[in-house]
């Protein structure tokens, strides 16, 4: 007997569900997109326990009759395409006919729908992919779908769901994205019986951005002039110079009404803002792109998050030119940097190296650590457009008792400075180059770690506590790590919803904008997920704070260099920064002689 067998319908449906339904937020996405396709003007999403217990999506769209309601539960049944040719010009959000049956196969599912001109509606209950009962219903016009006990019959999938706060944050972020893509639809989000937000339908994207993401986020954006290049229409909002994040969570790219992930767009924005943001930061964006459906394929990803472009170079150029025009026309009065070349395409030769960005003021290394302050000056203004934010003077540890900064630097003779970061030294064995930034990271890391371990981290209290309204994912992460943040010097209190009150931050970050300092540290740490409790959490936070507060530039003076070297060599692990990069590199005399042919 052969080894190959046909899968049962039940198993085949669960396999399909694994491609479409990754987590509760995937269910919300698919059902809300079906509401858009049904012509809804109002959609309400309710969920409980992070979506694992209940998701209910109610819309006022066209609704379905009994026959269509039953057919929508069959795999590959759809009203949106008729032939293979239709796949090349898809204009609807959903089209595969997989979402509803896949969701119904891994949950306790209930569908209630009615055509607006029908006398009665239809109610269908499905348990694990099998229809339990079908009956008439007195429902209002439109469709309501309840998804209860998601993955109840697939425990292997259910155990991979994250905590309730994390899953709730994913749903909230997904709903934000969908609401931004369709501002004309009134949308409401309810969690555990409490309304999180409600956005009225509007023809103005700016109103929707402000209502959903808050006035603080909106104030950091400016509207771009609608443009068209290569038949690609671009509009929306981009960050003002200096306004960015260490991740792309707040970059919303909307293509023909569909929220997508598109490396071509991300690359163009990064290149366009190369001189308007510090390295490693990404501009905020709500970017709307209109293209001919024949120019891209949205059928390459099960969840339709990614697309394949027929001519990606054209999209890259269109986004780049729109972003550069935005920066030059809106903010050129404060910018002196030359305009870089557009992104390279197959027909474009490689560009010459870009001109150096404006240099930040020198950062000095004082000999003593400042004492904790009880008040601070008001929050400094944001950095001038196109200029990196000036780095504060960096504290280094107080010399040990009996030490002196004029003593020999552990048998190193300081020769001079090299560039913006390096110190050239000579030892008995050969030449040594010290990375001043890596050295300052190591010094700060060990100082902060000792302070955190003793429970007396040096903090800077704000004169006026700052209320921070955060995106859902950031708020969920901070809620789960409040104690670790406090130990490292960030004093935060929940202030209702996704808002927190920041009362103090680590002293070494006192000169930075408090919001930016907190979000930078959280951005570094979120890449590794939720940090573990106890000592590892504090270590991770301290490592991130030391990285953020380290030197941006080192102006050479022999006494300052000698002090930095002495403090580095007092560290427990002086030869690597907390990220593992070397602080010093040595070339022995033997190696130099061999390089010059004398060995």
What does this structure look like?
With 599 residues, the protein is α+β, with helices and mostly antiparallel strands. It has three domains: 9-199, Histidine kinase-like ATPase, C-terminal domain (Heat Shock Protein 90), CATH 3.30.565; 220-332, Ribosomal Protein S5, domain 2 (2-Layer Sandwich), CATH 3.30.230; 413-586, 2-Layer Sandwich (Ribosomal Protein S8, Chain: A, domain 1), CATH 3.30.1370.100. The chain is built from 16 helices and 25 strands. The strands form six sheets. It has an eight-stranded mixed β-sheet. Strands 9, 10, 11, 13, 14 and 16 form a six-stranded mixed β-sheet that branches. Strand 19 and strand 20 (422-426) form a beta hairpin. The longest helix has 20 residues, at 312-331. Mean pLDDT is 77; it is low at 333-409.
Structural topology:
Elements: H1 9-20, H2 24-37, E1 42-48, E2 54-59, H3 66-71, H4 99-104, E3 108-114, E4 121-127, E5 130-137, E6 142-148, H5 155-158, H6 164-181, E7 186-191, E8 194-199, H7 205-219, E9 221-223, E10 227-229, E11 232-239, E12 244-245, E13 251-255, E14 258-260, H8 263-272, E15 282-283, E16 285-290, E17 296-297, E18 308-309, H9 312-331, E19 413-418, E20 422-426, E21 430-435, H10 436-454, E22 459-469, H11 472-479, H12 482-488, E23 491-494, E24 499-506, H13 514-526, H14 535-549, H15 558-569, E25 584-588, H16 589-595
Short synopsis of the structure:
The protein is α+β, with helices and mostly antiparallel strands and 599 residues long.
Supply the CATH superfamily name of the largest domain. Histidine kinase-like ATPase, C-terminal domain
The first-to-last residue Cα distance is 73 Å
Number of strands: 25
Structural class computed from helices and strand pairing: alpha+beta
* Rg calc: 29 Å
Low-confidence stretches: 333-409
Number of helices: 16
CATH topology of the largest domain: Heat Shock Protein 90
**Major sheet: order of its strands?**
5-4-3-6-2-1-7-8
**Quaternary structure classification:** single chain
In what range is the share of β-strand residues?
15-25%
Number of structurally distinct domains: 3
Helix content: 25-40%
State the CATH architecture of the largest domain: 2-Layer Sandwich
The mean pLDDT is 77
| CATH C-level category of the largest domain | Alpha Beta
The largest β sheet comes out as:
8 strands, mixed
Anisotropy-based shape = elongated
């Amino acid at each position: 007997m052969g080894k190959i067998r046909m899968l049962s319908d039940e198993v085949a449906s669960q396999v399909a569900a694994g491609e479409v339904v990754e987590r509760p937020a995937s269910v919300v996405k698919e059902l809300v997109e079906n509401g858009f396709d049904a012509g809804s003007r109002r959609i309400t999403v309710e969920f409980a326990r992070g979506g694992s217990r209940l998701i209910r999506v109610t819309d006022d769209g066209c609704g379905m009759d009994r026959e269509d309601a039953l057919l929508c539960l069959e795999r590959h049944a759809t009203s949106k395409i008729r032939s293979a040719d239709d796949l090349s010009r898809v204009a609807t959000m959903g089209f595969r006919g997989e979402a509803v049956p896949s969701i119904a196969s891994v949950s306790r599912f209930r569908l209630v729908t009615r055509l607006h001109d029908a006398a009665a509606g239809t109610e269908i209950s499905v348990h694990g992919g099998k229809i339990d009962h079908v009956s008439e219903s007195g429902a209002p016009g439109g469709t309501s779908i309840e998804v209860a006990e998601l993955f109840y019959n697939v425990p292997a999938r259910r155990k991979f769901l994250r905590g309730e706060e994390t899953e709730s944050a994913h749903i909230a972020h997904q709903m934000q994205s969908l609401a931004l893509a369709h501002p004309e639809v009134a949308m409401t989000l309810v969690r555990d019986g409490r309304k999180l937000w409600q956005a009225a339908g509007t023809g103005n994207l700016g109103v929707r951005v402000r209502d959903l993401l808050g006035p603080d986020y909106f104030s950091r954006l400016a509207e771009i002039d609608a443009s068209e290049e290569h038949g690609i229409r671009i509009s929306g909002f981009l960050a003002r110079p200096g306004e960015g994040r260490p991740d792309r969570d707040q970059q919303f790219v909307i293509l023909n009404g569909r929220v997508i992930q598109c490396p071509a767009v991300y690359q163009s924005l990064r290149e366009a803002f190369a001189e308007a943001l510090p390295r490693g930061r990404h501009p905020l964006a709500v970017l709307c792109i209109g293209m001919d459906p024949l120019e891209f394929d949205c059928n390459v990803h099960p969840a339709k998050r990614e697309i394949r472009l027929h001519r990606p170079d054209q999209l890259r150029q269109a986004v780049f030119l729109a972003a550069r025009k935005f920066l030059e026309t809106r903010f050129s009065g404060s910018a002196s940097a030359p305009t870089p070349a557009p992104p390279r395409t197959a027909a474009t030769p490689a560009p010459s190296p870009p001109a150096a960005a404006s240099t930040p003021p020198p950062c000095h290394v004082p000999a003593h650590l400042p004492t904790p302050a009880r008040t601070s000056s008001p929050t400094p203004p944001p950095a001038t457009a196109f200029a990196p934010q000036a780095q504060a003077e960096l504290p280094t540890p107080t010399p040990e008792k009996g030490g002196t900064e004029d003593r020999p630097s552990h048998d190193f003779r300081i020769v001079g400075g090299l560039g913006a970061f390096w110190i050239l030294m000579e030892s008995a064995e050969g030449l040594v180059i010290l990375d001043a930034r890596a050295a300052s990271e190591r010094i700060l890391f060990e100082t902060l770690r000792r302070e955190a371990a003793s429970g007396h981290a040096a903090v800077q209290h704000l004169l006026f506590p700052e209320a921070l309204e955060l995106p859902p994912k950031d708020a969920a992460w901070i809620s789960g790590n409040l104690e670790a943040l406090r130990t490292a010097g960030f004093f935060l209190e929940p202030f209702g919803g996704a808002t927190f009150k920041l009362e103090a931050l680590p002293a070494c970050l006192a000169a930075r904008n408090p919001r930016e300092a907190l979000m930078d540290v959280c951005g570094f740490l979120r890449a590794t997920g939720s940090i573990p409790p106890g000592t590892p959490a504090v270590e991770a936070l301290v490592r991130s704070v030391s990285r953020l507060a380290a030197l941006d530039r080192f102006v050479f003076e022999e006494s300052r260099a000698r002090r930095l070297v002495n403090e580095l060599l007092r560290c427990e692990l002086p030869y690597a920064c907390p990220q593992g990069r070397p602080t010093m590199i040595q070339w022995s005399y033997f190696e130099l002689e061999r390089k010059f042919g004398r060995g």
